[in-house]
Amino acid sequence: MTENLNLFLRGFIIGISIAAPVGPIGVLCIRRTLTDGKLKGFLSGMGAASADMVYGAIAAFGLTLVTDLLVENALWLKLIGGSFLLYLGIKTFLEKPAEQAAQVKQSGYFGAYLSTFFLTITNPMTILSFAAIFAGTMFIGTSNSPLVIVAGVFLGSACWWLALSFGVGFVVRGRLDQNRMIWINRISGTVITVFGIVALLS
Q1: Which residue intervals of 95-144 are DSSP H helices?
Q2: I want to staple 56 with a disulfide (CB 3.0 to 4.6 A). Which of 10, 104, 113, 153 is the partner?
Q3: Handedness of CA 84, 88, 89, 91 (dihedral sign)
Q4: SS3 of 98, please?
Q5: Using one digit for the tens of pLDDT, what is the confidence trace for 3-62?
Q6: d(CA 5, CA 18)
Q7: d(Cα 44, Cα 29) in Å, to the nearest integer?
Q8: Half-sphere exposure of 125 (CA within 13 A, CB side)
Q9: Looking at residue 173, what DSSP letter applies?
Q10: pTM score, two decimals?
Q11: pLDDT, position 98
Q12: What is the C-alpha separation between 115 and 99, in angstroms, rounded?
């Protein structure tokens, strides 16, 4: 019991450490929280958390065949993910905010989740990060430890996105007017587009 709790807490910390660095997913989550509401921002983060869970499971269970396949096709994954980032960046830059900044859009929740899941799953560096962390810390000790670690990774990542989306939603969103929302779209779109260009050129 104590060993499993220790493994869960370590996985939880890994989930937060993988999710926390600000990248295109973080920018998307913040922007969607500000424009569409806390729930859509949180669901955007949950897409990334789900992809982290998949990659965490691959690393924890030692599925080297899948890992090798992903690494071998890293170029195509980067091209697909980078192209999608470019699309999202340009779309975000050109998108006009709703007439009422506080209006919550009730559609597109699944699309918000799916888009960030796709972006995260097409990043081959994610699986390499998990593999390096798991190998360096020698986690695997019991037959059920991979499940405990993966559960910790998912909940750690989910808690980060919950804190980020609801924190931004409560602190910032209600203070934005129409003009500021336009600039948020432009800045977010530019940042996401730059991430896409970097992914394509890396």
Answers
A1: 109-121, 124-137
A2: 153
A3: positive
A4: coil
A5: 778 878 888 888 888 788 768 888 888 888 888 888 999 999 999 999 988 888 887 777
A6: 20
A7: 6
A8: 8
A9: G
A10: 0.74
A11: 53
A12: 25
Domain containing 116 equals 2-201
Question: Which residue shows structure tokens 């500000």?
Answer: 34
**How many domains, in total, are found in the chain?**
1
Q: Look up residue 1 and give its DSSP letter.
A: -
- Separation in Å, CA 56 to CA 18, 33, 133, 175, 199: 10, 26, 10, 38, 22
Sign of CA dihedral 165, 166, 167, 172: positive
Supply the pLDDT for residue 46.
Answer: 95
Per-residue pLDDT tens digits for 91-109: 888 877 654 443 444 458 8
* Structure confidence at residue 43 (pLDDT): 94
Matching residue, tokens 């948020």: 184
Task: Show the tokens assigned to 82.
Answer: 């980078």
- Enter the tokens of residue 27: 């920018």
What does the pLDDT look like over 129-144, one tens digit per residue? 776 666 655 554 445 5
The residue type found at 64 is T
What percent of the chain stands above pLDDT 90? 13
Tokens representing residue 11 in the block: 């996985």
Q: Contact, 130 vs 10, CB < 8 A?
A: no
The answer to whether the beta carbons of residues 41 and 29 sit under 8 Å apart is yes
- CA dist list (Å): 163 to 15, 40, 48, 104, 157: 13, 13, 14, 19, 10
